[in-house]
Write a structure and sequence with these properties.
This protein is of the alpha/beta class. The chain is built from five helices and six strands; from the N terminus they run βαββαβαβαβα. Bound molecules: guanosine-5'-triphosphate and magnesium ion.
């Protein structure tokens, strides 16, 4: 029979990197230019079929604003997966992403699958973070890495599907 697995997934990253937009694209197939900044956190769910299993993601889309930082542990604790998002047109957001990785490595659960998403990949002219730098960082820290665009949908389903695939192996 078809096995259903629930998987708590958290998105973390600086304000405005596109966490909510990635979730909206993945869950509803939509994109809006003027996405409102998240307050606290928002919850969504979406299923992905991998081989003979169904992964039901329980998604916590956290708020990037610094004043909500203290809430984050509630969302990443016990998470099966974490997507750390930066904006590839914003070097400071990549620095912030590394801080999230450090925090997860120190305070999170060791089994959490971590993905690094370099979002806004459609804005190629404005790139501030190279693929090489992000890829090297991800490899050194045990994350898998993809550049994504919530706007064009590039790699959005793919990153969630890759997480789902890895979850079926644990
Ligand atoms: P907080 O909730 O404040 O932490 O922000 P967030 O990370 O959820 O970012 P959000 O999804 O609200 O996106 C911020 C802005 O970036 C919005 O105006 C989006 O339309 C835009 N945006 C998000 N993803 C992309 C993308 O892939 N490409 C482009 N061009 N714009 C994007
Ligand atoms: Mg948001």
């Amino acid at each position: 029979g078809n096995k259903i697995r629930n998987a708590k997934l958290v998105l973390l990253g600086d304000v405005g990197t596109g966490k909510s937009s990635l979730v909206l694209r993945f869950v509803k197939g939509q994109f809006v230019e003027f996405q409102e900044s998240t307050i606290g956190a928002a919850f969504f769910s979406q299923t992905v079929a991998v081989n003979d299993e169904t992964i039901k993601f329980e998604i916590w889309d956290t708020a990037g604003q610094e004043r909500y930082h203290s809430l984050a542990p509630m969302y990443y604790r016990g998470a099966a997966a974490a997507v750390i998002v930066y904006d590839m047109t914003n070097a400071a957001s990549f620095t912030r992403a590394k801080k999230w990785v450090q925090e997860l490595q120190a305070q999170g659960s060791p089994n959490t699958i971590m993905a690094l998403a370099g979002n806004k990949a459609d804005l190629v002219e404005a790139r501030q973070v190279s693929v090489e730098d992000a890829q090297t960082y991800a490899q050194e820290n045990g994350l898998f890495f993809m550049e994504t665009s919530a706007k064009t949908a590039i790699n959005v389903n793919d990153i969630f599907y890759e997480i789902a695939k890895r979850l079926t192996r644990v």
